[in-house]
Specification:
There is one protein chain. The protein has six helices and no strands. By secondary structure, the protein is mainly alpha-helical. The radius of gyration is 24 Å and the shape is elongated. The protein starts with a helix and ends in a 20-residue tail after the last helix. The protein binds heme C. The site of heme C has 22 residues, from helix 3, helix 4 and helix 5.
Length: 191
């Protein structure tokens, strides 16, 4: 009995040192090519889901009409496509990130669901506004307006439905870029 208790106490004292030693001299995964830790996905997904469920924003303050979908497509082209890819054209570096940014315009590997079209727009709004820690998914609440975040979230919720032609051309990366702003030259002052 005494030896068992001694063993348990010794184990409790040594466990944190063993963990520290593993961090210091073991080879915890730090490179993109390293295999994931056991249950890494589950461990990071559970708290994220719980947090979003607690803070889930309500319904979008706008309709998924042509103007909002097209504005959302412009936000997508400018801020998101670099990682999440265009419709039919994957991001060139997504496959070399860990975790990989999902292709938001393509069907999931084993189902007909396109991107995050099965998530409520409020859930996507939360992820875009707050970002996802340790994944490379940025928080956009300081760089996009509330309206822009809703517009791109609505667009992604409709990724499995027919889009207005202009919005579709933008998310396929085939719409001509907007013309550069007109250069206004200030007339030189005559002395
Ligand atoms: C620098 C790369 C990068 C940029 C730019 C980026 N994302 Fe992400 N995004 C990621 C990564 C990586 C993930 C995967 C996170 C994870 O596995 O939990 C992700 C995840 C997401 C998810 C969750 C997907 C899911 O299956 O739950 C959504 C939605 C999303 N991004 C939307 C956007 C939108 C909208 C923009 C532009 C406003 C954007 N992202 C810009 C890298 C990026």
């Amino acid at each position: 009995m005494g030896r068992t208790i001694f063993g348990v106490i010794l184990g409790l004292i040594l466990a944190p040192f063993a963990l520290l030693a593993w961090f210091q001299w073991g080879h915890p995964p730090v490179a993109v090519a390293d295999p994931p830790l056991p249950m890494e996905r589950q461990i990071t997904q559970v708290p994220l889901k719980a947090r979003i469920a607690r803070e889930l924003p309500g319904n979008p303050p706008m309709q998924a009409d042509e103007a909002n979908l097209t504005a959302g497509a412009q936000v997508y082209r400018d801020q998101c496509a670099v990682c999440h890819g265009f419709h039919g054209r994957p991001s060139s570096f997504a496959a070399h990130m860990f975790p990989e940014p999902p292709a938001l315009w393509e069907k999931h590997a084993n189902s007909d669901v396109v991107g995050v079209s099965d998530d409520p727009p409020g859930e996507t709004y939360w992820k875009v506004a707050n970002g996802i820690r340790l994944t490379g998914m940025p928080a956009f609440k300081d760089t996009l307006t509330d309206t822009q975040i809703w517009q791109v979230s609505l667009l992604l919720a409709n990724a499995d439905k027919p889009l207005p032609p202009q919005a579709l051309a933008i998310v396929m990366g085939v719409a001509p870029a907007a013309p550069p702003p007109e250069v206004v030259t200030v007339p030189e002052k005559k002395h």
